Amino acid sequence: MGLYAAQPARRAGQLLGDGLVAAWVLGWAVVGVLVDRTVSLLAGPARETARTAERIAGSFSDAAGQAAQVPGLGDQLRRPFDSASGSLGELIASADRQVAVIERVAALTGWLAFVIPVAVVLALWLPRRIRFHRRARAAQAFLDSGADLDLFALRALAAQPLPVLAAISPDPVAAWRGGDRAVITRLAEVELRRSGLDLPDALRLPADADGRRG
What is the pLDDT of residues 139-161, one digit of tens each? Predict the structure, then answer.
């Protein structure tokens, strides 16, 4: 599907690069979780305050219930306990709000610690991989359709560095115009390699098949 080059060395480099990117993403995912948990520890005191206040408020509620059973004085006796329990309820609500805020900050910080470095690497790596895949898939589609090698040779003349062209022929343009199949085949092979593909054996010239490509 054009995900990796046909050439072993280039394919190994692509696999290594993809593996490093995957390791980078996994590593920063672990960092993000650790940051989240570390910041969440700041909510410990507020969480403990809420639990302690809940226990005391429960004790006051129990005391208010017992005081209410005193004949004739029950309502008056329970009022201080009810008032204290209400004040503790406000303290519990405030502590719970602090916990919620800290947990949101922890989650946001953890996500930022993960997303920012991963986004930077993906912005550099992903476009290159997509371009390679699209180029390889398009080139393979031309090969599968039986397209002539002249198209790839022409692209090589336009895209390859001059030293590469000079190594193929002293005058590659004239050779291409003159229909020199050996030069056209070598130009096409160079261009296909740029797309991560190998020249199909069926399209090689006899000289290529014997390894006499110069």
Answer: 888 877 766 788 888 889 988 88
Q: What is the DSSP letter of 203?
A: G
- CA-CA distance, 193 to 177, in Å (whole number)? 22
Rounded distance between C-alpha atoms, residue 199 and residue 138, angstroms: 14
The set of residues, in sequence order, having a beta carbon less than 8 Å from that of 149 and lying 6+ positions away, is: 184, 185, 187, 188, 203
Of 73-87, 100-114, 171-185, least confident by mean pLDDT is 73-87
164 and 190 in contact (C-beta within 8 Å)?
A: yes
Percent of the chain scoring above 70 in pLDDT? 88
Q: How far does the chain reach from its first CA to its final CA, in angstroms?
A: 31
Are 197 and 140 a contacting pair, CB within 8 Å? yes
Which residues neighbour 56 within 8 Å (Cβ) at sequence distance 6 or greater?
Answer: 88
For a pLDDT cut of 90, what percent of the chain falls above it?
29
Q: Alpha carbon 88 to chain centroid distance?
A: 47
- Which secondary structure element, helix H or strand E, spans residue 29, and what is its range? helix 8-40
Per-residue confidence band for 113, with pLDDT thresholds at 50, 70 and 90: very high
Contact yes or no for 64/102 (Cβ under 8 A): no
